[in-house]
Amino acid sequence: MISIDDIRDARTRIAKFVHRTPLVGSATLSRRAACRAHLKLENFQKTGSFKPRGALNNMSQLDAAQRERGVITISAGNHAQGVSYAAGLLGIRAVVVMPASASRLKAQAATEYGAEVILHGDMAGAFQKLDEVREERGLVFVHPFDDDRTIAGQGTVGLEIIEDLSDIDTVVVGIGGGGLISGVAVAIKELSPRTRVIGVEPTGAAVMHLSREQGKPAKLDKTSTIADGLAAPFAGARNFEIVQKYVDDLVLVDDDAIRAAMRFLLERCKVLAEPAGAAATAALLTGKVRAGAGIDSANTVVIVSGGNVAMETLSDLLKSP
Q1: Domain count across the chain
Q2: For residues 169 and 298, is the Cβ–Cβ distance under 8 A?
Q3: For the segment 221-268, what is each residue's pLDDT rounded down to a tens digit?
Q4: Which of 96, 122, 141 is the last residue of a domain?
Q5: Contacts of residue 266, Cβ cutoff 8 Å, sequence gap at least 6
Q6: 67 with 193: CB under 8 angstroms?
Q7: Catalytic annotation on 305?
Q8: Distance CA 93, CA 19 (A)
Q9: Domain containing residue 130: CATH number
Q10: Between the CA of residue 22 and those of 45, 156, 178, 205, what are the distances in Å?
Q11: For the chain, which end, N or C, has fewer CB atoms within 10 Å of the first or last residue's CB respectively?
Q12: Which residues, 6+ apart, have CB-to-CB distance to 316 below 8 Å?
């Protein structure tokens, strides 16, 4: 399991390539949630999400032979952009496999960063295609979440949070495969053990909930949610181990709550979040996450993990149910 020192080392590696994103308060969200609510705005990160942090920390540690071979990854979109961005900076050839239904905006962005993008099947089919292409071309797999180097890179989000706001009651994080929450949980819990870390999943892609029920990393036969960035078909083994040790609770939000959170963030905070990026806010707005019994002054941090939304789908996503 990674340590806070691994996360600090990751920050040193990636600092010149990424933004230190802002942590801002929201008076309206604070009133609604009966806490002092703060937004960690990773939608302002390079490529529009937190993903370059893990990709850069991972790929910057490849040796010369691995860099020469090139890398491959799989993604619904944001990790594809993170790897493509990192590959361009590091001079590494990158191939990205995405499901055929992936956001065209995200696929185009990955292409423009310099990666070769392969659209193929559903997520299960995309994983099969990944294995096929990796073996044919001898490429190095950069895992989107189940890799210590990726996790340490994502953990730099938590390191920044705890440095900017030391007295924190709760940190709320969306969960896909578990890369972000596992990195953030290590950073938060090692530096502030009393702070609660709460994970949020869509009802249609609750693989970490299932993993906790089964006591081991689980797989889903299918996922159904507007939050494509949280629709991983399985939980990472490393991620599950950290979640079991450090994450205090997991909650579920439905797609209507995610849409409402997107509208809230745009209307009241002037923040454009994609569905996956709004899930943590949805948990606070719906009362699934509470600051604590009668604690109106508790500092609560919600991570807005990304803001990559195609204009042609934005109006539908913002519609009231």
Answers
A1: 2
A2: yes
A3: 999 999 999 999 999 999 999 999 999 999 999 999 999 999 999 999
A4: 141
A5: 272, 273, 318
A6: no
A7: yes
A8: 24
A9: 3.40.50.1100
A10: 9, 13, 23, 29
A11: C
A12: none
pLDDT digits (tens, 9 = 90+) for 153-208: 999 999 999 999 989 999 999 999 999 999 999 999 999 999 999 999 999 999 99
The domain containing residue 76 runs over which residues? 52-141
Candidate list 40, 46, 51, 129, residue with the active-site label: 51
Task: Please report which confidence band the pLDDT of residue 296 belongs to, taking 50, 70 and 90 as the band edges.
Answer: low
- Do 287 and 164 share a structural domain? yes
Q: Which of 141, 164, 199 is the last residue of a domain?
A: 141
Point out the catalytic residue in the list 30, 60, 182, 305: 305
Q: Please say whether the dihedral angle defined by the alpha carbons of residues 42, 47, 51 and 55, taken in this order, is positive or negative.
A: negative
Residues 22 and 121 occupy one common structural domain: no
Question: Do residue 241 and residue 97 come from a single domain?
Answer: no
Co-location of 25 and 134 in the same domain: no
Alpha-carbon span 280 to 212, nearest angstrom:
19
